[in-house]
Amino acid sequence: MGPYIRTRENPYFDGLLVKGGSLTEESSNSDFGGIYDVQKVSRFRSDIGNSGRKNLDLDISEKPMEPAFGDSISDAILQPFIRASNDSWSNAVRPPASVLSDIQSESNFHLDNPSDPMKDSLDHYAPSLLGTEKSYKVMKKRTSLPKIPLPQSAASFYNGYSPRMEIVESCESVNRLNFFLKSRREEVDAGVPGRFLHAVIGQDVPDVGSVASAIMYAFYLNETLKNDQFFTVPVINIKRTELNSHAELKWLLDSCQIDQSSLIFIDEIDLSYYDLFGSLKLVLLNGSKLPSKQEALKESVIEIFNCKEGEFAYPWVEKVTVGQECSSCTLIAENFAMTSPQILAGQGFSRLLLAGILLDTGNLSSPDSTTKDKYMATLLLNGAGRFGCNGLYQILRYKLYDVSELRVADILGKDFKKWTRVGKADNSCSRLTVAHVGMSSIGISVEQLLSHGEASTREIKHFLQTEKLRLLMIVSGYYDQQKNFKREILVSTESVEVMKNLLFFFNSNASQLPLKAVHQPDIGEEMKAFEIDKVTSRKTIERLLEQFGGPFNQHRP
């Protein structure tokens, strides 16, 4: 028996570091961060396990990338190449300029042979054919990893601590998912003629778990439900514009190579129209009741997925899946594992589910985390990539609170609540009879918010006017350099008179909310900053805000 030679099915090891059986200077770890050349890698599944050493043909272009790539996510697509014979590899063929001009799009997949008569039929995904080859993509990093407290891992030995590019496998399962999303988007735009709209929708909470579970469960139902009358589509229960204020969601969808343009958000489809004509069938995720804004559609609910035991608000629903306190992404991954486990092998596909599990369970350390959550996270470990589960969780948590690239309006809208008057108030609040009161929670200090841009104060006032508020309370919670938790508030009002009423209310409730004024220059009389002298929860502030405004009904804008 010949000696064992370990092989890795990854172009980073065989394509970038090795040329002619030896390491090259151009692909050394120290130079990897500055690579600006497109490198082509030929690699096939059938060669894994061969005891003989492989000879790879590398075509390393000397031309730098065109500046047009800029900060786009994908700077190049590494094209797969068809093997010529069992003993030799085909030479790398450079695609024509017409193909290279399209590689900036992350959702486009091109074959290496432009003259292939099958190419036109494969512009859209064909599962039976793409399963025989792999392609890889060089993705330029937008995040500076040293800012994120990543755990030490063996991957740092290979890729360094801050590579500017990362090689990502374009997996078959993500291709199938993108094809599903794109086809559904096109038919929804056409009106879904002659079929029931089978919409999968979650709660109106813009978190990773809700978005991931809506996409993945809709895809699961489409793959397993054999009903030509149902047109299954995921509906993300937030506005598309809200996605801009959630960097963790955008980063995750980008890293999983999900085509965001094919996603359908709640403001892009009129569910009440389909309900009016009796063609709406709803699948409700992560709860027993629809959000208040969609409560009128409750008669269309035919399935509830992942609700608590005993919480059955709609008795006519026959198909109910009780969540057993675990993440909805855990249940969906379990369904895939039982029906088509091979689909979980794709890194992007498994990463989307794994991210939902990690954030729902606090990196599997929450008291609500179950054994099933941990088991499925282990099964989906490939989705974590070189970061590992801890590293992926740290990146998502960092992105969750990172506002460095957001506008002030996006920061305020990230966690925003709004109340509307429905009753009479006492004399001190009589001027708020028809008022709206809003509260934004932020993870940075008031000083950082006001220094976020030259026009921060003006943008805050513009947000107040856009949301038609008479009072906006910005609640800040953060840790200072000594790791002490600080709570601050910034109040913006429509007029000086409203501010005076609010200050009088604060003075009368000083025992519950002890405030110390913090001077902030050039913010005007309609805006005041305070530091809270004791640890106070947002719920306490929210309750006092309701008392100031009288009886309000809370709702999401």
UniProtKB/TrEMBL annotation:
Its domain of life? Eukaryota
UniProt xrefs under InterPro entries? DHH_sf (IPR038763), DHHA2 (IPR004097), DHHA2_dom_sf (IPR038222)
GO molecular function terms listed in the Swiss-Prot or TrEMBL record: exopolyphosphatase activity
> Looking at the Swiss-Prot or TrEMBL record, what is one Pfam family this protein matches?
DHHA2
Question: What GO terms fall under cellular component here?
Answer: cytoplasm
Q: Where are the transmembrane segments?
A: none
Ranges for domain DHHA2: 402-539
Annotated Gene3D superfamilies: DHHA2 domain, inorganic pyrophosphatase (n-terminal core)
Name of the protein in its database record: DHHA2 domain-containing protein
